[in-house]
């Protein structure tokens, strides 16, 4: 994919932004044995600019035996599981106990045409996990510690025009930044940027809404740099374009002259008459073009998507465009089934689409900056974002990380609040915590006066430390302290930065053993301890957490509380609370790691969306002796529900405000049917005991793929009986064969105890078991395109084929 931002009049490329994802070379190194680590650390590579001793970074180093990979790439997902691995990271054989798996080397050659000479050339990494060092043509260009913020290197002086160049990156994933699966490698995009010497950058253009009346008053600014060797004069010309690309506002700044190496920030106001507002229902986006004109020539042109909207954070709640809005949010970690943290943009859109369909209106980037594609998807699909920096720390490294995050994301329509940290138990209630918070909040207000910050504090009614300094008090759990806190803080807005942490395993119903301790955790658990699964109902939660219906009814009945972010939208690898090995993945998700809904999904959907919901659980393939009492839950937003088993009524009930309907039903094979009424309308839903599995069904989320290796299709896999009814407890092993110019990049099934392979080498047999009736295959498009066919086969089942273009 080649993305360039061409001059609208002359057609010449003013600024280029070229994707550099394809065709990298990759090899594991070694964290403790330099002889297995390209002899890095044996030679003193920092004694000379171009060291004679080091050749791993030179163009003629022979990397032909290295593996060829396309980015995004996460090597952790390809590693085996090991009991010696780290609980919080999902027991992958990575980290200090596995030095042989924890260093990754990447190399990439690229050409620059002679016509690029004279331009500034920049290398942009959107995310590398983590601790990366980079060389270009043998010369060291820098070190980037964070696994979550991006880094740009100006490589103008080092590149060759008209002959090959080489980038070398050493990645050290030995240490963690979080307590959850974090992946390893260059797991986001890499770009090659080129621009002129009098220029700005996407991060230094900033637009926000000051007020909305007959016309929307916008603040626009751009920081312009002079990298010429003489003084230059420039003007900034702004235009705002609507969706139809029609220019609806313009402004040109006065001439400014600046010396070499100087930078100047130019600010202005622009007005948009009758602006279309951005909100979660109508995510209308405008484009700001920032043109820099120097000596009569356009020297830079930057396009920025933005939304016109106002945020107001009041003691009685949050207002979007003057309208009060409850935050119905989810916290999300960034890994997905099959691919680990290496998500193509299409997969980010897929996941955000699932959250939208559930009725969520907000996303918390727990606990670090997420991929730029997440923010783009939230802008376009209409989800608010609480954007979080990795640590509550005002030291140089972390202040810089927070600044990089704000500058990267502040133009996004979706970002409504910054989060300066999470559960720093040792300092959050101290004076140090308070001082750090004040520094970070003040930095945020300087870089982005249009928003405020919060912090995820796992304390109740407390006023010390961060809580005293934070504009919006964030509650992680501890809602027992809410009422008292509200009384003592009548002027502070309050939000649920983290709520619920209900645990459940998709499709698991039996056996039901109630425990107040599991895996060393106290709490309330309805668990199958033998297989380390939890009942797929809103019943289990560790001591600090709650049922979904507990936190949400508290929230819904409290007009002051802004709403909250459920821990979590999707299951993620690591933190298999309350269990441990062989459990490797969390149970917190409203959906599993593939995005398949658990039962609690329908609770949220019933209260968060407009769609009529009538959802019965468990499924009715229970294999129980006739007459065994089954606890049947129904989630609904209808007014009342009547339940029938094989045509006989089991009684009618009024739907409780924020709870669930409940029947004890003596088991009998057949059909369980619910009939609900909403505004006088009848709604029905039913579940039936199926016959045995008969055929495989493949459900791709789309069938058209874009060539160029950047597109993906998610294919969901299930099994039906002879009558075409999905078999909810099917567990067949399915094999997948793909033909055409595309590749299977991962498979998954949402089983938090599965040690099956997620990824496969070229030529290897691709297979995955169904877990409670479902699994998933993720396909990446090829370079050229054409017809692609996926075939799924399994012993004794009718095969399925899906064709894509
Ligand atoms: C919170 C924490 C999250 C996650 C969660 C599990 O305390 O902020 O990252 O660990 O608990 O319930």
From TrEMBL:
Family annotation (InterPro entries): Beta-gal/glucu_dom_sf, DUF4982, GalA-like, Galactose-bd-like_sf, GH, GH2_Domain-Containing, Glyco_hydro2_dom5, Glyco_hydro_2
Domain Glycoside hydrolase family 2 immunoglobulin-like beta-sandwich: 204-309
Keywords attached to this entry: Glycosidase, Hydrolase
Domain DUF4982: 627-683
Span of domain Glycoside hydrolase family: 696-802
UniProt-listed GO biological process terms: carbohydrate metabolic process
SUPFAM superfamilies: (Trans)glycosidases (SSF51445), beta-Galactosidase/glucuronidase domain (SSF49303), Galactose-binding domain-like (SSF49785)
GO molecular function, one term: hydrolase activity, hydrolyzing O-glycosyl compounds
Coiled-coil ranges from the UniProt annotation: none
Record domain Glycosyl hydrolases family 2 sugar binding: where: 101-192
Source organism, top-level taxon: Bacteria
Family in the record: Belongs to the glycosyl hydrolase 2 family.
PANTHER family listed in its UniProt record: BETA-GALACTOSIDASE, BETA-MANNOSIDASE
Name of the protein in its database record: Glycoside hydrolase family 2 sugar binding
Organism: Capnocytophaga ochracea (strain ATCC 27872 / DSM 7271 / CCUG 9716 / JCM 12966 / NCTC 12371 / SS31 / VPI 2845)
